[in-house]
Write a structure and sequence with these properties.
three-stranded parallel β-sheet; P-loop_NTPase
C-alpha cells in the first residue's frame, strides 16, 4: 500500500495490526528507508530541510531489505502481508509486489493532514517540506495508475478505508 504523504499509510498499518492483520509500516524500518543523495549514498537529513536540500535528495528503500520483507514467511494462517509506505524509488521495485494499492487524497486533504501531524513524522509541517510534498502530489498517483496500481479514495474514515482494502484481498 502506498500513497502521498498524509494519505494514511502508517495509520492504516497500525489499524490493520490492531485488527490482527500482518501489516508493516515501512517508514519505521531503518534498514529499509533512508535519505540519499543523487548517487544513492545515504545521507543524514537535517532537522529542517530546505527546498534546495529536498530537491537534491530522495527518500529511498534498500532493495535487498525490501526483498527480505516481501519474502519473509508469514505467520500461520496469514494470507496477506500489508507493506505500507512510500519511497522515491518504489516504482523501480514495484515488481516485488503482488498487488499495489494507492491511497489517494486530494491536495486540500493532504495539506490539512500534514499540518495537523503530531509526534514522529515531521515531513510536511514546515513550509519547504509541505511544498515538496504538494509538488509531488499529482504526478505520484498518475505514475502509479500507469503502472496498473489499484487507486482508492483515502479521504473516507479510517474504518471505511480499511474495510475497502480488506475486500480487495479476500
Amino acid at each position: 500500500m502506498t500513497g502521498v504523504s498524509g494519505s494514511g499509510k502508517s495509520t492504516l498499518a497500525t489499524h490493520l495490526q490492531r485488527a490482527g492483520h500482518d501489516a508493516v509500516s515501512l517508514d519505521g524500518d531503518p534498514a529499509l528507508c533512508t535519505w540519499a543523495d543523487h548517487t544513492g549514498q545515504p545521507v543524514t537529513r537535517p532537522p529542517l530541510p530546505d527546498a534546495r536540500w529536498l530537491a537534491e535528495h530522495r527518500w529511498i528503500w534498500n532493495a535487498d531489505r525490501l526483498r527480505q520483507l516481501v519474502n519473509a514467511t508469514a505467520p500461520d494462517g496469514v494470507r496477506v502481508r500489508w507493506l505500507c509506505g512510500r519511497a522515491d524509488n518504489a516504482l523501480d521495485l514495484a515488481d516485488l509486489f503482488d498487488l499495489i494499492v494507492v491511497l489517494h487524497i486530494d491536495e486540500p486533504t493532504m495539506r490539512k493532514r500534514l499540518l495537523a501531524r503530531a509526534g514522529g513524522n515531521d515531513y510536511g509541517r514546515s513550509e519547504d517540506t509541505l511544498g515538496h510534498a504538494l509538488a509531488q502530489h499529482a504526478a505520484f498517483t498518475s505514475a502509479w495508475r500507469r503502472r496498473g496500481a489499484a487507486v482508492m479514495d483515502a479521504t473516507a474514515p479510517l474504518e471505511v478505508v480499511a474495510a475497502q482494502l480488506l475486500r480487495m484481498t479476500w
